[in-house]
Amino acid sequence: MAKKEEYEEYEKKPKLKNVLIVLGILFVIGIAVISAFPIKYVATEEYKIIEMRDISEAYKEPYDCSFEESYKEPYDCSSTDINWVMYDIDYGVASRTCIQEECSQQERYCKEKNFWGNCVKYGERCVQYSCIKYKISCKVVIENKEREGYTFSVNMRKYDYDDRDYTLISRKNTWISALSSKTLYWDFTYLSTDSVTCSANLETIPTREVTTEKTCYRTKTKTIPKTCYQSRTKLVSTPFCVTKTRQVSKTTTLLNQWTGNTDYHYKVEGGCDK
Fold it and tell me: Of the residues 16, 105, 162, 182, which has the maximum number of CB atoms within 10 A of its CB?
């Protein structure tokens, strides 16, 4: 009896082993099939794009800020004065000569006598003469007191005391050097009944220009060109690289999920990366 039970027990062991092997193979096959079966999941995808944004940018704007500037402009304001030259004149009588006489006193005398010495014929003769016409010689001395020579125009005249009048005898232009003098002569005749003398004057007094050099200044304005700058801002469209995310549907397997090889968040290369 005992041997029979041991035999039955021995017969059962190979069958159990085969069942276990089959079950193990089926389990491995089932696991492989299940792990390879695709499943869908939602992942977060990170990507980059270029966005244009308006950026406020500061800049310097030029503008004209020229200005007026006053300055002093020199100019010649020299003045010229006309002055009479310094001189001295002196005139008078140089000499007086009688050029015509007449008898002013006569006497009677015997021109012829007879045998007895008596005067039978008388005559008259002048015992005293008087001048009735004279020639007068005049002179004038002109002295130039300037340090330059000038031409003097001299009137040589006769003055009548009774008529209180001047008569021009002659006029002469004469050059007189600096700081020197010159004497001029003239003459005229007159009767003894006339009351006259010599006289002289200058027709015109020479003049000289006296220039006083001087520089004056007048105020003027001029434009000074200048460029200034003022701060301004402007909107400039500028590209920016922006990172964004989106939900995408992905496919994986259970095996990848179990092993941790499923990416639920990943980045997309490219975009605006250089």
Answer: 182
* Size of the chain, expressed as the number of residues it contains: 274
User: What topology does CATH give the domain 84-207?
Assistant: Immunoglobulin-like (2.60.40)
> What do you get for the CA distance between the two ends of the chain, in Å?
89
- Confidence (pLDDT) at 247: 77
Q: Around 48, how many Cα atoms within 13 Å sit in the side-chain half-sphere?
A: 12
Taking a C-beta distance cutoff of 8 angstroms, is the pair 103, 128 a contact?
A: yes
Tens of pLDDT, residues 189-205: 999 999 999 999 999 88
Sign of the Cα pseudo-torsion (38, 39, 40, 45, in order): negative
Cβ-in-10-Å burial (0-12, 13-18, 19+) of 186 comes to: buried
Q: Which pTM was predicted?
A: 0.47
Alpha-carbon Rg for the chain, nearest whole angstrom, is 77
254: left (phi over 0), alpha (psi -120 to 50) or beta: alpha
Contact 134, 97 (CB under 8 A): yes
